Structure prediction request, 243 residues.
Amino acid sequence: MITFYIWCCDPTHLPIPAEKPGTMRSSLTLVGTLWAFLSLVTAVASSTSYFLPYWLFGSQLGKPVSFSTFRRCNYPVRGEGQSLIMVEECGRYASFSAIPSLAWQMCTVVTGAGCALLLLVALAAVLGCCMEELISRMMGRCMGAAQFVGGLLISSGCALYPLGWNSPEIMQTCGNVSNQFQLGTCRLGWAYYCAGGGAAAAMLICTWLSCFAGRNPKPVMLVESIMRNTNSYAMELDHCLKP
Prediction:
């Protein structure tokens, strides 16, 4: 009787479907695959815009000038005879304290943290397309919450950016008439809109899709785990009943 019970509880007798050789298994649903793709697109768009100095366009000494939060293209230097000349090259500020305003310093930190979070989630989502059991339904929802936080951080950085338009360096580029939320003769660049658009897509679209991204636990795997535990208990009982 005991022997028959053990045989019935043996998980090796469960019919497990054969897997096709060379088939890539995924832990994501079809919606999850779309979520992984959009997550990668939004993360790359926001992060690329963060590093490119094309958030704000103006002019100084007859030369075009552009800014991001911590980078600048074309800047004035003292030449011979103490006259100002424009150096036409792009680069970042020499130090964090050299960033023109406190608002832009905060924007640099907040936006960078948001981009890092979006990139981390996007990397995990892409790995979920190639690895089984990496992303469950609950894990997908947690990753969506992280995307919402990342998008919120980038959006906060975009909201902080206009607070630095009253710094002397920006006013010199914007006709000396710029102020907080007033551009003067300057204009916003495409990178600013790209960063904001990527953050909005991550918060609204990716967060919603993440709720349906992960697969539920497979019933066969759950039954196999239960039967394995039952088998161990039956073997212990059989050992105890033997004289």
Notes: The beta strands are 56-60, 63-67, 71-78, 84-92, 187-188.
